[in-house]
Amino acid sequence: MPHSPPPRKPASPGRPKDLAKRAAILDAAKCLFVQHGFNGVSMDQIAAEAGVSKLTVYSHFGDKDRLFAEAVRAHCEQGMPTRLFEPAPEVPLRERLTEIGAAFFAMIMTPEAIAGHRILCSPEIATSHMPAIFWEAGPQQVQNGFTALLERRIAAGELEIDAPERAASHFFTLIKGEPHAQAVFGYCCSGHPDTPPVHIASVVELFLRAYGKH
Question: Which residues contact 8 (CB under 8 A, 6 or more apart)?
Fold first, then answer.
């Protein structure tokens, strides 16, 4: 009796998407969005800059809105990795706040971030749906991570805060402060007395005076 052929293996799913191509697309998108704004960049341009086909760009991200959101998320993750908000009760609170403040300040003060901020404030973009996409993909995620950290430190008895979300907003707003506003305006005040470490330390001190367990 002839042997029956072995059962055919079920078809395997498609190859995992090429992470190197995804990273190249995100890098290209971040660069082009900053240079030309959201409306000034096409998916064709992003594909050419990344060295991939337009089909590959759509395969990874679906549409330009989602690509923009992912580029913002990647920028924030690069500047403020999630490890900054992970539970680390052995790290003193002041040290952890200083580390988060320094990472946030460095991220928002890069030339690319300043240029992106100016684009988002332009009338063309400010009246569109792009600010909402930007906020939810980037700043909101950072603020959520920091709020969760504050809640853990409240539970540990290190902080007294009635509204952690508002306190997180206070912290990042203070970190931005005058230096970021001057950078956005293109104004360089050489006589400013505070270096970034001094500025960040003063914000952390003020935050702890307001919310620290005394």
Answer: none
Give the count of alpha carbons within 13 A of 4, CB side only.
3
3-state SS, residue 10: coil
Fold of 17-79: Arc Repressor Mutant, subunit A (1.10.10)
Residue with the two structure tokens 């946030």: 104
Residue type (1 letter), 53: S
In the chain, where the domains are located: 17-79, 81-214
The model's pLDDT over 116-150, given as tens digits with 9 standing for 90+, comes to 888 888 888 888 888 899 999 999 999 999 999 99
Q: How far apart are CA 57 and CA 187, in angstroms?
A: 38
What architecture is domain 81-214?
Orthogonal Bundle (1.10)
Tens of pLDDT, residue by residue over 101-125, are: 999 999 999 988 998 888 888 888 8
